Predict the structure.
Amino acid sequence: MNQWQCSNCGYIFGAETPPDKCPSCKEACTFQNVTCYIPECGGPGNIDPRLATSKKGDTKKG
């Protein structure tokens, strides 16, 4: 499973592919894949802190 971050509100969630609308803000946004692919951050299924950006009201869900 990949980890996706909403470009609008910063919400991070797990899904195989990004949805058409953000599950948090309900907007049609672009999504950045912030999945970790290296052992240093835990490997697949985890969030890569180098890719994830913090936004006000950021909610991280695995």
Observations:
- The first strand starts at residue 2 and ends at 6.
